[in-house]
Every structure is written in C-alpha cells, then in structure tokens.
Write a structure and sequence with these properties.
alpha+beta, five-stranded mixed β-sheet, 19% helix, 2 helices
C-alpha cells in the first residue's frame, strides 16, 4: 500500500517558483529539501522516511539507489531541484557540484 497520499497530506506544499506540488523533507543536516511527491521508479535517488514526526530525506549513491530501485524495497523520490523548470533561481552562485 502506498503512503503517497498520506505524505502529501502531512508534508505537502508547493514550489514557490513553479507552483508544483512538492513534499517538504528535512536532511540529516537540518536543511529543507523539496521532493517530487510521487516516487520515481526510473530515476529516484532519495529516500523519504518519517522519523519522530518529521519527513527525513537521504540522498543515496548511484549504486545504492540502483539496488533499491531494482528490488523495489523502498520508494525512492527525486529532489524537486532536478525537475523544477525554475531550479536555476535557487542555485547558489559560485558553488560547483
């Protein structure tokens, strides 16, 4: 059974740039991370787990994400930064990946 509607109801919001529906998660470092609300079977690389009432996101390595996608052991999400048509507005200047 999918938890998607429950997550959207509790952690959902909208992207301030493009208006798309997003899930607001928090990284282990305490930073907010917008996620596309539907799991991505093809390219997802972020886990989203409810812990102590918070939606905690973790970005996985390519290998770990591929393994979880193959086994479908856990839904994986995409960061909304990867799909937002306005993502460049939120990139930090001078930072390289």
């Amino acid at each position: 059974m999918s938890q998607e509607p429950e997550l959207v109801d509790r952690y959902g919001g909208h992207c301030a740039s493009c208006g798309a529906r997003v899930l607001w998660a928090t990284t282990a470092e305490g930073k907010r991370m917008p996620l596309d609300p539907r799991p991505s079977e093809a390219a997802g690389n972020v886990t989203a787990v409810v812990t102590r009432g918070r939606l905690i996101s973790t970005v996985l390595t390519k290998r770990h994400a591929a393994r979880l996608r193959a086994t479908r052991a856990q839904p994986l999400y995409l960061s909304h930064f990867a799909t937002c048509p306005q993502a460049d507005q939120h990139r930090r200047k001078g930072k390289t990946r």
